[in-house]
């Protein structure tokens, strides 16, 4: 028996030498994961993220059950909380929708923040100068047009450079954000001669309340834009062209799509929708403008768009979750006195976990542990080679998580 | 007046220089870390935590200037490296999208900074900051030479030394050559036997550590131990500076001084309040112009690393 063993071990090591395995973990791309399984992994990641956030809260002096109670309280205690939640979700969603066509084209527009601000600035300009000289409804329409123009111009500038000279759009749009912030600060300085740099509430051009509730118009507008974008991305020729450009520029050229034209057109649309978001934020939310009006949503929206896989419906779900977490965490930090930046940490942790879960959807992990001692494995070489190709333990951390969820 | 302006520009430029040097190392490996602002915040957190526990450990004893600076540097470096580790784990091992991961790190880091430092006990920090700002010569009435070259804190010199060493390593050594190969064409580098993953991990983590020192400098040298402001805005300028200096750390020394000067110019110029806001835009405008010019001229040595922003997966060809 012992002799036999060592002979087999020799054979085995010679055999392994042929393969030159360098790592016990082998990662390969996976295309065939069924949709429900991918969704389960994502859902498991979301649940895990909520648990981790709860644990962090416990570490900071809250208690575990309290985390979920306060989360619920912050979002659903009163109608006001719920409308605030929908408003936050709507604004996140519309900016995410705005960046989506550009991302599908692999145009890394991280300038949504600036485009929203420029839309808002144009909107505030109309509110500041036109005032009551036209009826309120007409003013709101003028504000919309101005905002769309502002956002679209801010979006198309980097697109022109990208189309013409292939200028790096990620860094260009990033710079454009700061120019926009600076322009807003400058404009406020001009409008507020006292130097306090705080523009008060502008009286004219405010969106009317519906049923005495604020933000209702915002939510309706975003719902319309969502449907429009769903159709645009899925069924229109433009939507098809931009996904071809995203997949392969060479293919697009080959089948006669003018790539510069698509880039410029898509960024015009992207900027225009960001402009609408600015219009909603200034005309329908704060009735004023500060450099913080976009408040980092331009960046968060990118994450929402990415995690929603550029699908408006998934994006709505993600936007809801993020808004829920943000509002809930704000309530938590009030209750436990955790400070204003606590929601940022919570959403950060949430995004880390959900982003990491993408890996388990896109890749398959194989653990190839050498089983030299096991007789069954070494019985003959053919079985051996099969053994090496087959995954021996495909159980990943996320999947166990999901399985636990299912059994619950 | 002019010398004072130049001196404060050079001093302020250190924040950008650390961030830019760190980001250049990272980008040379082909990873675009948009989390640099957050990483700089994490460096600041690490420095503050380390120095806080150092001060608590003293029990009222005298502060040793050398060791407190060393503790700050090591803690800031390690904590920022932790941020880099999160980034590289997500992007190198899990191959997540770099832009998305970077932006998350930025939000997270900035949030964490105001969260942890907002409630931190800062007694003794202003004394510690004196150890950080202490130069070779001290005093009020210095001649222009000593004032301009010898009167900075340790971290200012360290930033310049690190930038020069980085420039030499990237340009002149085998490690630098391998690093550039990984950033330009990871598949070829992999075929040549260079471990792409290892280089990317190390480049991102070391780069993050260096960037984190920028946060430490900002808190303990520039602000004098006050914790009122976060550092993330300057992180974005550091990202801009990388482009401005076309991925060369030695150029970024001059670039950072220019950016520092542009940023501080409004305080030294006699202009109206609102015009100052416009002058503050100059660093960004200048960066955009450089970005456009380099792309129009399209010379190969002035381009970003070819694989910048693309996670490498060997089986994907």
Explain what the structure shows.
The complex is a heterodimer of chains A (408) and B (317). Chain A has 408 residues and is mainly alpha-helical. Chain A folds into two domains: 23-60 and 338-408, no CATH class; 72-337, ABC transporter involved in vitamin B12 uptake, BtuC (Orthogonal Bundle). Chain A has 16 helices and two strands. Chain A has helices at 2-19, 35-59, 64-76, 79-104, 112-129, 136-165, 169-191, 216-235, 237-247, 249-254, 259-286, 297-307, 312-336, 342-362, 381-389, 397-407, and strands spanning 25-29, 363-367. A two-stranded antiparallel sheet of chain A has the order 1-2. In chain A, helix 2 (35-59) crosses helix 16 and helix 8 packs across helix 9 (237-247). Chain B is 74% helix and 0% strand. Chain B is built from 14 helices and no strands. Chain B is globular. Chain B has a single domain (2-302), classed as ABC transporter involved in vitamin B12 uptake, BtuC (Orthogonal Bundle). Chains A and B meet through strand 1, helix 7, helix 12 and helix 14 of A and helix 4, helix 11, helix 13 and helix 14 of B.
Report the strand count of chain B.
0
Q: What is the terminal separation of chain A in angstroms?
A: 47 Å
What Rg of chain A do the Cα atoms give? 27 Å
Taken as a percent bin, the fraction of beta residues of chain A is under 5%
Overall CATH architecture of chain B: Orthogonal Bundle
Mean pLDDT of chain B: 87
